[in-house]
Amino acid sequence: MFKYLNHLVISKFVMAFSGAYLLLFITGHLIGNLQLFMGREPFNAYANFLQSIGEVLWAERIVLIIAAILHIITSIYLKLHNYKLRGEKYAVRKYVKAGLNSRTMIWTGLMILAFVIFHLLHFTFGVIDSKNYNYQELYTKNAYAISFAGDIEQANQQSMSMEALNPEPIVYERHDVYKMVIMDFRNPWVSLFYMIAVALLGVHISHSLQSAFQTLGISGPRFTRFIRPASIVYGFFIGGGFLIIPLSVLLGLIGGNI
Amino acid sequence: MKVKLHVWRQKDKSTPGHLVDYDVDGIEPDMSFLEMLDILNESLILKGEDPVAFEYDCREGICGCCSLTVNGIPHGHQKGTTICQLFMRKFSDGEDITIEPFRAKSFPVIRDLIVDRSAFDRIIQAGGFITVGTGMAQDANSILIPKKIADLAMDAAQCIGCGACVAACPNSSAMLFLSAKSSQLNLLPQGKPEKLKRARAMIAQMEKEGFGSCSNHYECEAVCPKEISVQFIAKFNRDYLAASIKEGA
Ligand code: HEM
Ligand code: FES
Known about the structure:
A: two-stranded antiparallel sheet, 69% helix, B: Ubiquitin-like (UB roll), elongated
C-alpha cells in the first residue's frame, strides 16, 4: 500500500490531497467549536446532533483517520529521505523566500500530532480528567417539561401518565460537553497547552493552503499573488479562532453560569 | 577596495574540505566577482600556492557554468543574476565574504568550488528532448503558435541549467530545473506528443540521481539567475497528475 513512497511526485500528491482533507475538517471543526460562544444549550445540542448521525460521523471519521495516517507517514518518510540527500551543510546559509513556517512544517506537524493524541484522550475518550468528562445535562424538547427538570425518571413518568396524547419522554439526558470544556479550560495549564498547540497549527496552515494548491498544479500569476497572502491570513484565522476559546474561558468571558 | 574572503578549499572528492581565509586588496569596484577571484589566484600563484579552483565559461550570464554560493545564497545576493555578472560595487569595502560550492548530495565537490553537475545532463538524456527525424527545417510559419504560449515556452527555455535551484533547496530538489526543461518542450506542438513519457523518464532519473522532493519553499525561484517561476512546477505537477489519473501511475 505504501509503494507510492518510492515516487517523490506521487508522494507529494498524497501529502496535498490528505492535507486538503485535513484542512476541510479543521475548518468545519472550528466552525462547530465556535458555537461554544452561543451558550450551553446550542453547543450541547450541536454535540448531541453529531452523536445522533452515527453512521455519517463514522464515515467521516474513517476518511479522516486514513487521511491523517497517509499525511503523517508520507511527511515523515519524505523528510527523512530529503534529509539524506542534502550535501554538506553550508557554513553560511541565508534564505531568501523560504519562511520559518515552510521550514518547520515537520516540527509543527509533529507537535500537532502529539497534541491531537492528547486532545482525543482528553475530550473524546475522557481518559485525562475523567471527572469533568462525565457531566450529564438534562434537557427537554418541550418548554412545559422544564418544571420537572431535575429528576428524569419522575418527569418522564409524570408526563406519560398525565399526557396520554404524548407518550414520548420529554426530559432527556445528554453529555454536557459545554460544562466539560469550560471546567477543563479553567485549568490554566490545560488552556496554555491548547493555545500553544493551536498557534502551531496556525503556523502549519499558513504554509499549507497555498502549498496544496501549488502541489496540485492550481497556479497562475494572479492566483499566486492572491493565494500566498490568503494562506497566511487563513492560518491566522484558524489558529486565532481556536485560540480564543480557552482564552475566553480563562478570562471568564464565557461559562460564567457554570 | 578590499575584502576578507572565507573560501571553501577541498583537494578532491574524498578529502574533507574547510574554509580558508584570504585578504584580497586592490579590487576595482567595476570588477566582476570572478575577476576578484582571478586577482586572488594571481597572488596565490605568485606565492607558489595552489589557486582556488572555480568553474566558469562565458562570464556573461548565459552558460550556467559559474556556481558559487556567496554569503549563503547561490549566485550571491543580487536577484536574477549569475555570480559572473555580480560586480564588486555591490559589496562594501572590507566586507566579509564566504564562498562555498553549490551543496547537494547529487552535486559532489570535485575540487574547491567546482561540483559535478552531470546529474543534470543525465536527466536531459532521459527525457529532455523531442524525438524527431532530422532533415530540412520546415517553413517557419507552418505551425502557428499563439504569442502567449510562445512567450511562456521562451520563459521556461531561459533555464541555463546552472543548478542554483538545487543548491538553494533545503531538500536538494531539482523540480524547477525539471519543470523548466520539460515545459519548454511540452508547451509547443512538437513537444506535446511525448509529454507524459518525458515526465516519467525525467522524474525517474531525478529520483535515481538523488534529488529530493519539492516542499514549496520557493527558494529555487528566489535564487534562479533567470528568475524562472515556480508556476512551471505547478504546471508540471498538474499535467503529471492528470496523466497519472487517466493512464494510471
Ligand atoms: C489538522 C492538522 C493538519 C493539517 C490541516 C495539515 C495540512 C497540511 C497541508 C494542506 C499541507 C500541504 C501539502 C503540500 O505541500 O502539498 C501540509 C504539509 C505538511 N504537513 Fe500537514 N497538516 C496537518 C497535520 C500534520 C501532522 C500531524 C504532521 C506530522 C507529521 C504534518 C506534517 C506535514 C509536513 C512535514 C508537510 C510538508 C510536506 C512537504 O511539503 O514536504 N501535518 N499539511
Ligand atoms: S560563467 Fe557563464 S553564466 Fe556565469
